[in-house]
C-alpha cells in the first residue's frame, strides 16, 4: 500500500503486548496477520488520553476539522484498491464489493466534512423584550463504537465521520475477525493530520470486557453499536447507569415484497442485489420474500435462474459474486435454518450444490409458509425463502409480524398502493422498486428492536452533539 506500511504497523502492535490475535482468511483458512490485544488498563488509559485530546480537537474551528476529514477522505480514495484487498482477504466478500464498500465508507467522511461547518444553532423569538434566546450545538465529548465484521470499513467511517466532525474524540473496538481494515483506515486518518489520541482503535482481552468498559467508563458520553439485538440490549442496560447516550443498529428481518403489478424482471434484479450481497451477511439484506400468488411461479422461476448464475468462490478471483461466510459456526447456523425449512415442507427450487470450507451455494426455497419458524430468524446467509400472499391486508400483517424494523423492500407500479404500503410498513427504511437503499445522504436506522438513533444524513451529526440553550436577560 502506498501510504500504509502494514508490516511496520503490525510489528509495532505486536511488540506492545504478548497477547496476540491471529487473523484468518475465511476463503482458505490461512493466517494473514497478527494484531495485539490491549488489557483493560491500557484501554482505560486510551480513554483518558482521548478525553485530553478531545478538548483540543473541539477547540479547532469547524473548517479546520473539515479540512482534515477531507484529507482523510482523499487518502481513502487514493488507497481504494489496497484497502479493498485487505478487506476481501480478512472478510471474504468479492473484491468488486470490497471496492464498493471502500467508496461507500469514504463517502461518509466526505459528507461529514461538509456537515461539520453546518452545525447551526437557532435564534428563538423571546417572550419579552428584555431577553434574547439562542441555542448552540456542542460536541458531547468522548464517543466510542463497537463495529461488526460484515462491513469493517463502512461501519467505522459511518460512526467516526460525524463524531470527529462534531468535535468528539473517538475510540473504536472493531470485530476480532476483521481488525486489519480498522487499523488501515485509522492509519490514513493519522496521515491526514488527525491526532492519534483523537481517533484510537483498541482490541481488548474479550469483546465482553471492552463492552463493559465502554458502557460504564465515566469519561465516555456516547456509545454507538452495530450488532445483535441481544448484545445491544445488554450494552444499553450497562449504559443506563451513567445515562450515557447510545445509538444502536441491531437485528433485522427485512421483507422483500413483490406485488402482482410489479415489473418482475426489475424485482428479480433488486432481489439479487438485496439478498446476496456479501453472501447475505448484511443487516438490511432481504430476509424473507413475499410474492403475490398471481406472479409467484413467474418470479420464483426467474429468481432461481438468476441465482443459479452467481459464482461462488474466493473473493479475489475474477467473476466471483458470492464469497465465503464468515465462520464455521455461521455456516452451521445457516444450514440448520435451511434444514428446518425443508423439514416443515419448503423445497429448494434447484438442487443445492455442496461446497467445502466456508462456502455455501445461494439457495431459493419455495412453498415457504409465513408460520414456519425460520421466517422469524435473521438468516444472515445466502438463503431466500419465498412466501405466497393474496391480498394487501394479508401482506402488511405478515410483513410487520416481527420484533424487528430495520429495512424493507417492495415492488409495485401502482402509486396508490406505493404510498399506502410505504406508510404501513413498520420499518425505519423502505426501498420502493429498489434493492439497494444505503447512502450517506439519507438517515440509516430502524424501529422496534432494530435499534435507536440514525446514522448518515444531517441527523447523523446531531447524534454526537448536545443542544445548549442560552438565555440573555436584561437586554
TrEMBL record:
PROSITE patterns associated with the record: ALDEHYDE_DEHYDR_CYS, ALDEHYDE_DEHYDR_GLU
Transmembrane segment boundaries: none
Keywords carried by this UniProt record: Oxidoreductase
Annotated SUPFAM superfamilies: ALDH-like
Documented EC number(s): 1.2.1.-
Aldehyde dehydrogenase domain location: 16-469
Keyword Ligase: no
Entries under Pfam families matching the protein: Aldedh (PF00171)
Active site, UniProt feature: 249
Keyword Nucleus attributed: no
Gene Ontology molecular function: any one: oxidoreductase activity
InterPro entries per UniProt: Ald_DH/histidinol_DH (IPR016161), Ald_DH_C (IPR016163), Ald_DH_CS_CYS (IPR016160), Ald_DH_CS_GLU (IPR029510), Ald_DH_N (IPR016162), Aldehyde_DH_dom (IPR015590), Aldehyde_DH_Superfamily (IPR050740), Succ_semiAld_DH (IPR010102)
Protein origin, superkingdom: Bacteria
Sequence similarity: Belongs to the aldehyde dehydrogenase family.
NCBIfam families: SSADH
Protein name from the UniProt record: Glutarate-semialdehyde dehydrogenase
Organism whose genome encodes this protein: Vibrio marisflavi CECT 7928
